[in-house]
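Protein: UDP-glucose 6-dehydrogenase
Species: Azospirillum oleiclasticum
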Amino acid sequence: MRIAMIGTGYVGLVSGACFSEFGVQVCCVDKDAGKIERLRKGEIPIYEPGLDELVTRNVAAGRLSFTTDLAEGMRGANAVFIAVGTPSRRGDGHADLSYVYGAAEEIAQNIEGYTVIVTKSTVPVGTGREVERIIRRVRPDADFDVASNPEFLREGSAIADFMRPDRVVIGTESELAREMMRRLYRPLYLIETPIVMTSLETAELTKYAANTFLATKITFINEIADLCEKVGADVHDVARGIGLDGRIGKKFLHPGPGYGGSCFPKDTLALVRTAQQVGSPLRIVETVVDINDRRKKAMADRIIAACGGVVDGKTVAVLGVTFKPNTDDMRDAPSLDIVPALQKAGAHVRAFDPAGAHEAEKLLPGVEWTKDAYAALSGADCVAIVTEWNEFRALNLTRVKELMKRPVMVDLRNVYSPDEMAAAGFAYSSIGRPSGP
Ligand code: NAD
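Structure follows.
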């Protein structure tokens, strides 16, 4: 089996490397020449645990290669995966499909023999049909089928998610395409992964339904957390109390500063737009989007309140800026709302992130970046934990207190316990919990 992966980003690179690990011959294609050059030199352009070894091993075995030349990448391919970005379209929140349709045009020109064209990118219902129309228009003679195979991996645990997924969703009407997809995912059949075979439209919608459901669950517990603060309850106990009910489930009930990242914000918005367009509005999701936007903005106010209502002329240390730990991805990270709001209120922001600083430097001007957490804390009036990287879970609190001008911590990820922080002499606030004795 031979496949081409068009788009070598977080999803394309991980999926391509994992398919090669399954024994498939994979060529990853990207328009970004710098990215391909780095990959050819053995450098991994993104931070993703375990990806380095996986790529190196499969390149060495001759199963994984990289190119900017789509024709070369597609040579002899049984299937071509589209894994390009589908960001929010500026202005209206619809998914921007220009990269997908651009890739479809180029793919059409290079089809040789029967080929399955698979959309792995998250795309609105109807996109697969449009890809089919584009290819037919460009190459009426081409022998191909289209399929939708949305990706559910999470950055930070992407390899394990791809290799041992909860399920694989495949949408196509063609038996030949279905057979090809079964062969590609053969190792997952052996570990009895549920494979959900659907129509094209159903597969496309399933991905959005999954992401919007998860975003709704997070938003629900965030609002419960706010209520807990008002009534003196503890959101973690509430989450455990409800999560142990099998109908609810324990996951995604951790309160925080609002969801961010490369998927939830844009996918919730895109589904809202699709639903409005076809006259079947999703009012729950519309509300979720609104609440989450406001929440991210309101987090700076919490930090300002912890500083006595004024941050003008004060130094705020920010620990973590990526949208979650174990990634360098800054797309729609809550820090992008929080940090500028603090700066606008007059604060000097000093920040540290174990992997995201390089990317964040471009997006957060005026921030003083440090080489470690303690350097960020030195002389600070307040510290805010914005991303729960493991190394922030075990800070030496005595040292932190000595370094800071005032021992004030705003823990937006509930990494520490209120009792522990009170005992260590901190003015500590977190999300949805009483502030301590
Ligand atoms: P990304 O921006 O990291 O990567 C996209 C890549 O596609 C870029 O490197 C870009 O240069 C390349 N590209 C664009 N047009 C091209 C073309 N015509 N030919 C070759 N290369 C081209 O994006 P990503 O995070 O990997 O996301 C890709 C898709 O997967 C999106 O639809 C996203 O919603 C979905 N998805 C992402 C995740 C995630 O965690 N990042 C998880 C599941 C699904």
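Remarks: The first strand starts at residue 2 and ends at 6.
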